[in-house]
Write a structure and sequence with these properties.
Layout lengths: L7 E4 L2 E4 L10 H5 L2 E3 L2 E5 L5 E3 L2 H14 L8 H14 L5 E9 L13 E8 L6 H7 L3 E7 L16 H13 L4 E5 L5 E4 L6 E3 L2 E3 L5
Parallel strand pairs: 8-9
Antiparallel strand pairs: 1-2, 1-7, 3-6, 4-5, 4-6, 6-7, 9-10, 11-12
Bound molecules: pyridoxal-5'-phosphate.
The site of pyridoxal-5'-phosphate (PLP) has 6 residues, from loops.
């Protein structure tokens, strides 16, 4: 793993130097985990141009995630979309990964964030194959996790929420400690849900199948 670095980060409406994109230690999301984010890939296509995979769909989910978590994003989708494009340009990335993040700033503490500012960052950095080039060549070893995916009554399961990833981190680390590359998580009924940071697809008799999102 290589530490992530780059040139410029979009933070609350403007680009700042990478090293200037800092937050206060009382940032609410840092304490309680209520924030939402997306992970979006930009690929170089055969004709040499760059193409972002389903940028509109990802941003729609970002805004939906914020909405169902009762966070109002203080920028329009168009503004954040432009920030995504510009983040790739400003960091000289013809291909790479985009991370829009909506989080609750500092101010009030306690579980009700009250009037704390909703803050938005867009970060871009290079990111190779998620499970490594070797994983693509040789395949990976995965184990069924002892951790279950969150039950629908426990939190907003349709949202991509920062704090939910504690569950993923625990499952991932358990798998690595047990000598595997990745964890497969079941839901609380025991049905296959997804892996710690990726979806699961199966090809059977030339038919592609994946767990339902309903
Ligand atoms: C838990 C989890 N599932 C699935 C995915 C795959 O991405 P998407 O939800 O955009 O299909 C990711 C990617 O970040 C993830 O973290």
């Amino acid at each position: 793993m290589v530490a992530v670095s780059g040139k410029r980060i979009w933070l609350d409406g403007r680009f700042v130097d990478w090293s200037e994109a800092r937050v206060h230690v009382l940032t609410h999301t840092l304490h309680y985990g209520l924030g939402v984010f997306e992970g979006i890939r930009c690929y170089k296509t055969a004709d040499g141009r760059s193409a972002i995979f389903r940028l509109g769909d990802h941003l729609r989910r970002l805004y939906d995630s914020a909405h169902i978590n009762l966070m109002q994003v203080p920028f329009s989708r168009e503004v954040v979309e432009e920030a995504c494009l510009e983040a790739l340009r400003q960091n000289d990335l013809p291909e790479g990964y985009l991370r829009p993040l909506v989080f609750i700033g500092d101010g009030e503490m306690g579980l009700n964030p009250g009037g704390n500012a909703i803050r938005v960052a867009v970060i871009a950095w290079p990111w190779g194959r998620y499970l490594g080039e070797e994983g693509i060549q040789r395949g990976i070893r995965a184990k069924v996790s002892t951790f279950s995916r969150h039950h629908v009554n426990a939190k907003m399961t349709k949202g991509k929420t920062c704090g939910d990833y504690v569950n993923s981190i625990l499952a991932k680390r358990e798998a690595l400690l047990d000598g595997y590359d990745e964890a497969i998580l079941l839901d609380t009924q025991g049905l296959v849900s997804e892996a710690s940071g990726e979806n699961i697809f199966v090809v059977r008799d030339r038919v592609l199948a994946t767990p339902s999102t309903l």
